[in-house]
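Posting here for the record, re: flavin-adenine dinucleotide.
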Amino acid sequence: MDYDIIFTGGGAAALMLLYKMSKDQTLSQKKILVIDKEKKDKNNRSWSFWTNQKTDFDILVYKEWKKVRFIAPKIDKTDKLNSLKYKMIRGIDFYNFINAKLSEFENIEFLQAEVSEVKSISDTEAEVKLTAEFENKTFSSEYVFDSRFLQEDIPPKSNDYHSLLQHFLGYVIETDEPVFDKDTAQLFDMRLPQRNAVEFVYILPFSPTKALVEYTLFSGELLENKELYKVRLETYITTKLKIEDFRIKEEEYGVIPMTDFKFEQPKAKNMIYLGTKAGRAKPSTGYAFLRMYRDAESRVNAWKKTGKPHYEEKFNKQFETYDKMILNIMERNPSAIQRIFTNMFQNNSIERVLLFLDEQTDFLTDLKIMASVPPVPFLTSIKNLITGKKGQKLHQNSVSFVS
Ligand SMILES: Cc1cc2nc3c(=O)[nH]c(=O)nc-3n(C[C@H](O)[C@H](O)[C@H](O)COP(=O)(O)OP(=O)(O)OC[C@H]3O[C@@H](n4cnc5c(N)ncnc54)[C@H](O)[C@@H]3O)c2cc1C
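Prediction output follows.
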């Protein structure tokens, strides 16, 4: 065996797990190879999340906010969070920090190459093959952790599950005049036409003159071209934020699957999927950072106890059902989401909504949230889930409910 463990893909999920392993006496001694086709030396994304718990990456937090804002045509609400904080970590800081930590271990090797195939040979041996460009080289190991997620891995359209995309273009912009409230993260500005998609702008201000401004859609299809994201984002900046002069310092484009498709683990126990490939992006929000962190923590705890990196995941049926219901509405009738979110944020504290979206609420609180939103779209999606049909897609601009 060439290695004890091979990681195919060395992005967020792999690095979190490696970091957790590096803190354990035994696991940190394993002979490990991490293969990634990219060098992790660019700020290719940032991760935001909200929590009231400590994480290993708190020292990397670039900025955190105690105030959160929601805007839609009939509401402009800002709440001070109670126990939670909304936090942001820059990709480059995360990569540099973990790679520096891992470089202390001679038994961990990094290889920049493209993997073409991963397969299990037996219960205790797996094989990783590189592409022809890398001479089809193969490596063997006991375990393979695979987090390569390709566009082809996005589940195809089906009647058996919902398959939407969260797609966005964000700019980090700088202005001469102070225009941003640096203490408030704006999670949603839904004052946009909902063109057969859920559309909003998300703003994370770093200072009065610098912010990440991101135009985001939840929908079945990507926009026809990248230019359209640009035009809509820049129109928002000039018309809604009324900023004429700004400098684009960084750009972030991304696509995250939003689906209730079951991303199953491979049958072979020595091959394990991580991250987006393992369905860690929450179906109704696309947030994955904390879910990957919790997975890494559980895996390492189990490994220490049992000698194997497997643990029994507790799936919360209740939240799976809510996700399905929300996806069902987003797919059938995306324009309804603006009203639903307006009611949800109007009738609940933003902290309660965030706890709900992170699956940290109890059933009674969930019921209160459900009772605070227009009932018809939810009743329709419950009917659709019970009958196993996804329901008919409503025409753009049609209004499906009164409340
Ligand atoms: C732009 C963007 C912003 C995001 N922001 C947030 C956020 O704010 N909060 C949040 O919770 N979630 C966010 N997400 C969702 C999620 O947290 C990230 O996608 C996260 O990086 C997923 O981790 P991962 O390890 O599954 O994938 P990645 O971090 O993408 O790692 C996968 C790695 O596999 C490598 N790879 C792929 N194919 C091959 C191959 N054939 N051979 C070798 N290597 C290969 C890639 O180069 C990559 O490094 C965001 C996603 C994107 C795309």
